[in-house]
Fold each of these.
Amino acid sequence: MGRLRSLLIPGVDKKLLVRDAVKVMPDLARRRFIAGGASLGALTLLTGCDVSDSFSAEDMLKKVSKFNDAVQALIFNPDALAPTFPESAITKPFPFNAYYDLDDAPTIDGKEWKFEVRGLVDNKKFWTLDELYKLPQVKQVTRHICVEGWSAIGSWTGTPLRDFLKLVGADTRAKYCWFQCADAEGYNSPLDMATALHPQTQMTFKFADEILPRAYGYPMKIRVPTKLGFKNPKYVISMEVTNDYKGGYWEDQGYNSFSGS
Amino acid sequence: MSSLAASDERAVQATARVIQPAWVRTVHWINAVAMILMIMSGWQIYNASPLFSFLKFSKSITLGDWLGGALLWHFAAMWLLMVNGLVYLALGLATGRFRKKLLPITPAGVISDAKAALTGHLSHDDLTRYNYVQKLLYAGIIAVGVVIVLSGLSIWKPVQLQWLTALFGGYDVARYIHFFCTSAIVAFLIVHVALAVLVPKSLRAMIIGR
C-alpha cells in the first residue's frame, strides 16, 4: 500500500486536490439558487396568492431533471458500447477525484472487507474479496467523464456486473442496483437496471493491471463507462437490488440522477 | 369599387410595413431568454473545470450558484432553445424568409458594406432589407447556433451519440468547440444589442413588428 501511495502522489498536487474538493463540496450557500432571486414563490407572496400554490424555479428544474432522466433512459441503447482506446491513450497520472482529500479516502483492509448483496436476489450474502477475485474478469480502456467536464482515459479490469447479477440470481426486472460505499459521509448511488446490465458495466478490481489502488476505490469500484464519473462508486460495500429509488449522495443535491453519457 | 381598391391598397401597405412578422418576434424573444439562461449557466459549468486557467466567470454573470444548479438550468433551458430553434429553422425555410432576407451573400457586397459600416456611411433607413454585413452575420450566427447545439449534444451524450462526438474530433475537442461557439454568440450579442440601441426603430420593429 505504501508503495502504491508513493506511486500515486507524484503529479497529483495536494493543494489542487483540496481546492477541487472544496469546489465540489455541497454547502448551504450552494442551495441559495433555490432560495434566492430564482424563487417565484416570493412573488406569489407579494401578490397575495396562497403560499402552498407557490411555484418555485427549483421545483420546475427538478421536474425537468426527472423528465431528462426519462428521456435519457429512452435513448439509452443497451448495445451501444462506450468507445475503447489503446493502452497508449491512458491518462497518466490518472486523476484522483472526490469531495475529500486523498488522505481522507477510506482505508480498507481487504481481508476484513465484505461486499453485501441484498434485496431482490436469490442469493443474499456477504462476499469476500477472495471469492470475488475468482470470478472471470475482463479489461476495458475507456474514457471517464466527470460531471465537471474534464475527462481521462483509464484501464479497468473486473467482472461484468451483469454476469454477477446472473450469478446471484438478481431480479433483473427490478429498477435499480443501489450501491453503498465506505466513504466517511456514506456515499451511495442508484444505477438503473438497464445500465447495470450493459456489457461494459463492471465490478472493478484492478486499475492499469494492478490491484485497484486506494485512490481509485480499493477494493472495488463500479465502473460504468456509459455514466458520468460520480455514478461510478468507489469503496463499494453493498449492493441492493430494488424497485425503490433510494437517492444518492450527489443525486440528492441536484445532479441529474440518470447522468448517462 | 374604388373604395374597395383603396382599402386593399391600405391593407397591402399595412402588411408591407410589418418588418418583423409575429412568428419572428415570438421566436426571437424566446430565443433571447433561452440563450441568456444557457450562456449564464454554461459559464458556471465552465468554472467547474476551466478550459483556460486564466479565464473564470464571475458569480455576477453566472446562473445556478454551483455546478449542480447550473446543470439543472442548462439542461432545462436546452429544451426551450432546441424546440424554439427548430421552429425558427422550419419557419425560416418554409416561409422563404431565410432565402429572401439572407441571400445572396456576395464577398464583394460584404467588403463594400463592411467598409461603409466602418466609415459610418452604412444606412439603416430600410429595415426590411439587410445589408451584406448583416446578411453574413445573421446567416453566420444561425450556423453557430446549429454547431453549438450539436457540439452540446456530443458532450452530453458521447456514448449514445458517439458518431456525433467523433465528428467534432472527440469529447475534449467538442468541449472547446462548444466554448468557442458560446464566445462567438456573446460577441455577436454585444454588437447586436449595441446596434439595436443605436437604431431604436429596429428594436421597436422586433417588439411591435413595425
Amino acid sequence: MGVRTWIDSWPVYRQLTGTDPLGRGAAAKSGRSERLTPRVASADHVVKSVCPYCAVGCGQNVYVEDGKVTQIEGDPDSPISRGRLCPKGSASLQLTTGDAREHEVLYRRPYGTEWERLDLDTAMDMIADRVVAARRAGWQWEVDEARTRRTLGIASLGGATLDNEENYLIKKLFTALGAIQIENQARV
Amino acid sequence: MAECHPVGFQWVMEAKARGAKVIHVDPRFTRTSALADVHVPLRAGSDIAFLGGIINHVLQNEKYFRDYVVAYTNAPMILREDFRDTEDLDGVFSGLDPDNRRYDNASWQYEGMEVQAASGERDLEYDKRTTGGGSETEAARGEAHGSGGADIGEGEPERDDTLTHPRCVFQVLKRHYARYTPEAVEQICGVPQDLFRQVCELVTDNSGRERTTAFAYAVGWTQHTVGVQYIRAASVLQSLLGNMGRPGGGILALRGHASIQGSTDIPTLFNLLPGYIPMPHAHKGEGLDEFVQGEAARKGYWGNMRTYLVSLLKAYWGDAATAENDFCFDYLPRLTGSHSAYETAMAQLEGVCKGYFVFGENPAVGNANAKLMRLGMANLDWMVVRDFSLIETATWWKDGPEIETGEMRTEDIGTEVFFLPAAAHTEKDGSFTNTQRMLQWHHKAVEPPGQARSDLWFTYHLGRIIREKLAGSTDPMDAPVLDVTWDYPLKGELAEPDAESVLAEINGRAADGSPLSSYEQLQADGSTACGCWIYCGVYADGVNQSARRRPGTEQNWVAGEWAWAWPANRRILYNRASADPDGKPWSERKALVWWDADEGKWVGHDVPDFKPTKAPDYEPPPDATAAEALSGTDPFIMQADGKAWLYVPSGLTDGPLPTHYEPQDSPFDNLLYPQQRNPVRQLLARHPDNRYQPSGTEPGSDVFPYVATTYRLTEHHTAGGMSRWLPYLAELQPEFFCEISPELAAERGLEHTGWATIVSARGVVEARVLVTDRMAPLTVQGRTLHQVGLPYHWGPNGYSTGDAANELLHLSLDPNTHIQEAKAFAVDIRPGRRPRGPASVRLVREYRARAGIDENTGTEP
C-alpha cells in the first residue's frame, strides 16, 4: 500500500478533502464495503420467473450460480410489480432452497408409527397399483339407471399453487380414469 | 389489499396520488385502512345490507348512469307476472321448495321467454330420479357460469326503455332495495348514518360519464352462505353506475394463490371442464347433442358451446374421438349432485372414497371444520401428499390434535401415506394465471433436488404407468384411459414432460397441426383440437405468448405486450361498454376502445372485447344464433342477452336479487325479513362434529355472543404450507394470535400478550391475545358488538406454530359455489389456555349442552 492510498483510506481525511463533508457516504465507506459485491453480480445467469405466492403475479429474477439458485429479486421490467416483492416474495429464496424442504420420498405403512424411506420409482408403482384398484372398487356404471361411467374410489385436492399445465394434466388424467372428485383451493 | 396483495396495492396508491379517494370497508383497521381516505368498520356478514343501502341511495336519488343503464343492462326487461319478490313473501322469492331446500326459478324469467324444452324436460327428469337431492342446488351449476353464459331460453324479452313499467327489472329493483335505508344499514352493519352517507356520496360523485369507481374484494366476500350474492350486489351497483367495461371501473377479485385463477379456468374442480364448460350430469340417453341443447345459450358466445366441447374432446381423446362416437362424449364421467371438497370428505367418512391425492394444499388445517377433514383422511385406505415440507396433511396420523385428545391412536389408523416432495417454481417451466386473467410463464432455473419432482412429472408418469398396467385391457371401463392422448416429449435426465407442449395442446391445433391463434377459428366438426377454448391464442404462431416480457416502461399503460391475458389478450373485459351505443367513448378521459367508421372496425388502447368488424348499428337477422345474434350494442358478449344483469333470471340457485340474510351462526336476528338465513344454503351431513349454533333471539344464542372472522397476514400464506417453514417469515409472525378490542379485553379479563381460549360448537383453540383499537366495538341493533379477529395460517408443524382457526368453523356453504362461511360466525372467548387431552373435547360438549344444541339446531330453511 502506497502512502497516498494509506492516507486516502483514512475516513477523516476523505471527509475533509472529498465531496462528502458530512461523512455520510463515500468518506465513511470502509475498505471492506468498498470491496463487497452483491451476490447477484457473480451470477452465471438470470432466469425470468413469477412469484409463487398470491395471484398478483409479481415478476421475479432468479439468479443462478454454479447450478444453484443464489438469490431471487423483483423484476423491474414487470408492469405489474415494477420490481417490488412483499415479505413472502422476498423470502422465496428460503422457500426454494431452505433446509425445511424435504428432498426424499417418505412412506407411512398402515398402522405404522414412523416414516420410512421409499424409492421414488417404487412409490410411483405402488401408487399406480392403488389407483387401479381403488378406481375399480369404487366404479359405478350407473346410478339410478342413468349412465355415470365413473369412480368414487379416488379423489384429488389441490391445484391453485400449481401451473396451468399441471392442472390440465391432472384434470385430463383423472377424467379419463373416471374420477370426478377433483377439487382445489378455489372452493375454500 | 395492502395486507394480502401488497404489491398490487401500489396501484391504489398511484391512483390516490392522482386524486382518487380510497374507501376501506373491513371489520378491522389494517394497513389498507391506514392508507385509505375513509375506513368503514362494519359487522362481518352484513355486506349485502351495506351494498344494498348504496344501491337504494343510487336509485332513490337518481344517481345512476341512465344512458348506460338503458342501453347496456337488463333494467328495461319485463318480468313474468308470477314472479314474487322478497317484498311479497317475507324474505324469500317465488319458487321456494323449503323441504328440499331449493328454488324452481321458472317464475324468475323475463316475460316473453320460453325456457327451452330440452333443458326443462331434462331437469325435470333429473329431479324425478334424484330423490330430493336437488340437482341444481348441489351441483354448483351457478359457478359453471364463471365466464358468463346462463341460458335464458327462446324468444326476445319484452322491454320498456322508459323504465316505468311496474314489472320491469328497474322498478322491481327499486322496490326490493327500498327498505335498505341508512337507518337499516346503521342497525344491521353498525355503520353510523353519517359515515354511510359519506361513502354513498364518494361513490356516486366519482361515477358517471367522466369518472369511474372500482371495487376490489377477496374471500371476505366469497366465504359466506350468501357469497355469490355479495359479488352480485357489487355487480348491481357497478352496472347502475356505469362502471363496468370501463377503465378504472370493474369489480376486481383479488385472488390468493399464484394460479388459483388458472386452476378455475383449467379447472381441477368437480363441476367444470376447461373453459367453464359444465361437467355433464347423469341423464338417461343423453348424448352430445342433448347435452349441448340443454346447456348452451342461444345467443352470445356460449351459443358455440358445441364447438368448444368437441375441440376439448379432440384434445383429450385425439383420433379415438370421431363424429360417429359423439367425439367420445360418453367417456366423460357423470355427476349426480355435488362432489365438492367437503362432500369428498363426507365420502371418505362414509368409506366410499378410498384414495386421496393432495397437491400443494393443506386441508388438515386449511379447510373449514379441519377436524372433519382429518377424520375423513383417517378413514382412507391410502393418500398421496405432494408438498415441499411435512405439512399437517402429511403428519396428522402421528401428531394431529385427535392424537393429543385421545380420540385417535396412531396404531389404530390404517391409512397408508405417501409423501412425495414437490419441485419449486424455480425448478420447472410453466404458466401461472394471475388475478387479472394474465398467463405468465416462469422458466426453470435449476433441477429439483433429490427425489423432488414437478406435478407435471408426477401426473404424466403416473398416467404412463397406469396405462402400461392396463395395456391390452378390453374392459370398456379402461377405454378412456387407454385412448387418452398421452404423448408429451420428455426432456433431460429426469424425463420431465415438456410444459410448452402441454401449453400448445391447451392453445389448440388446426387440422394440419398448426397452432390456432383465436377461439374464433374453432370448429364443431372435430377438425380442431383445443384443451381450453378461452386460452386459445396463448400459443399463437407457435410462440409462447405468456413468456412475453417487453418491459412495462417501453409500453403504453395497458402494457399489452407483457405476457398474455385470456380471452384474446384483452385486458379489460367487456370493454365495448367503454364506448356509448354509437361507438364513441363516453368521455375522452375514459376512452378505451371505440368504433373507427373509416376503417370499419373497433380500435383503441386495449384489444376490443367485441367482434372487430361488428358496427355499432348492426342488428342481427331474426334467425341468428350465438355470437351472430348479438347486436352492435350488446357489450356483454358472454351473456345470453348481451347485457349486464341487474337481475338474474337464470343461473343462480338462491335468488335473482341479492338479499340480506344473517350468517349461519349469528348473534342477531335478521332485521329486514322474518327469514333469518339463506333458505337454500347448503348444509352438509348432520355429523356430531359439525353442529350449528342458535342465532339471534333463540335460546342459547348468548353462549356465543361474539362475531368472529378469519383472515390472512402479510407475512404468511394460506394454511402456512409455503410460509411457516421459512425462518424469515416465522420470525416476522411467530405464532397464532387473536385480535380484540380493549373493551372486550376488559369485559372478559383478557390480557395483551396473554392467552385466550376461543370456543364454537365445533371446536376450541387457544391464541395469544393482541389487544388493539384496530378492532373497534360496533353498535348493532342497539347493543354493543365485539368482534374477534382470527388469522388462520397455523397448525402444529413448522417454525411458526399455533392452533388452526379452522377448527372453529362449521360446514354451511354457499349453494352456488359450495364455499364455506369462514368470514362470519359466532364464538365465545375466555382467558387462559385451552384444556389438554380429553378435557378439550369435554369443553366443547359442555358448550353445546349449555346452548341447547342438537342435530336440528340452525338447520331450518
